[in-house]
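INFO  loader      accepted 1 record
INFO  loader      residues=305
INFO  predictor   begin
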Amino acid sequence: MDFEIAIIGGGPAGLTAGLYAARARRKVVLFEGEGIGGQAATTDRVANYPGFPDEIGGFELTARMEEQAKKLGLEVVYSKVTGLSAENRAFMLETSKGNYTAKKVIVASGVSPKKLNVPGEDEFRGGGVSYCATCDGAFFRDKEVLVVGGGDSAVEEAIFLTRFAKQVGIVHRRDELRATKIVQEEAEANPKIKFFYNKVVTELAGGDSLEKAILKDVKSGTIEEVPTSGVFIYIGSLPRTEFLSGLVELTPEGYLATDERMRTSRPGLFAAGDVRAKSLRQIVTAVADGAIAAVEADRELGAGS
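INFO  predictor   done
INFO  writer      dumping tokens
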């Protein structure tokens, strides 16, 4: 099936690109292989998106974006793009539901959570190890859990987990958090939250399910066993660019390099959102990227390029 614009990824960047492309009356399709909304949809609360002074749930916000884009005519195909190639000034997209062609492509495939890569992590995934507190927090009611990481995502999800858990420990390799001050202050004021500074997880252990985490002090080398029923990991992300092999310029970290108009090194191929090399990965910057990418793609189509 032929389209003018194809969008890969259904998070805020992709949905906004779809909205703008649909408003331009382009024949546009969006591919999403997991769930509409991306990582934003798994965020319990969004407190820094303009226009929502009382906060809004990530799922609700992205659901509104989806509804708005579809209302304008965005077509959504629930399938993962496994390959992308350029042929005769157009692109071929390979999916589990067949192949599609498009004149312009906007990659908004987002990122995946980075793993600790320690013994026990894979073994207890689904049995104590999680990368999504909003998804799995309710399974740990009245239990002790740990959150690994010190940025906004880690600390915000630790705060969310206090709704269910008896105690939440934040494990961070440095002696202070990286989260914004207002988030830090909320966590520090919460009596359910305990801090393990200058610590890293070296192993996760247990029987049928997770029972403890082995922590190492990065300064003294001291080893500590901490009983826990769950470990939630928020130590960064990896870009989802594996389907772009050899097609376009990537940074050493695997992100898509673009200019300010979201153009990549491959003519006709744009990038938006967390998958793009940028200094700030937030919903507000993702939607800006998506809007710019769609406008630029529309402009190129109008110019016949």
